[in-house]
User: Fold this.
Amino acid sequence: DTGVSQDPRHKITKRGQNVTFRCDPISEHNRLYWYRQTLGQGPEFLTYFQNEAQLEKSRLLSDRFSAERPKGSFSTLEIQRTEQGDSAMYLCASSLGTSVDEQFFGPGTRLTVL
Amino acid sequence: GESVGLHLPTLSVQEGDNSIINCAYSNSASDYFIWYKQESGKGPQFIIDIRSNMDKRQGQRVTVLLNKTVKHLSLQIAATQPGDSAVYFCAETPGYALNFGKGTSLLVTP
Assistant:
């Protein structure tokens, strides 16, 4: 257990529905990251926060995806109008943020879109 | 485009033997490299990291070697144990977003 928690661990939804995932980072960590991982592949970067500011977004983050970190602590990732191609493991990571530093990953939320 | 990749998708070793997992990267701007271990149904777990100003770093039973000339990274696991069975990813970053390779599945047989 790295200290990063994610909820829910599993989510099954129908195509077209909206889903929201939550990530609670290690409490003293300033940086928070979202990644997506499909079967047999390595995680792919989606977006990153320094405190409450969203500083970087991947091209993978389409306009149906939105992430927030309103108080610089927990973060949410929402996917609107889900598509079958959104089925993946969504991973959250956090780091201290003093420099380019070690990222600690949560257990992930596995999304299945039917 | 720039990418991180692994030479071997699967590796099978006997318990007690040493394991070597290789990784090639192409982004010459990367200055931080990490090896992660991922067990089924879990998130990636940090193993060891190395910065570009080093060529070798040792941890407990693990050693990472970095060859910047040929852009090659390797992970050596000494006395491999059944608990080491997992998928191993190398990752690199020139900034904050980690760029992961596809992964090598390590299977440790008794």
About this structure: The CA atoms of residues 35 and 45 of chain A lie 4 Å apart.
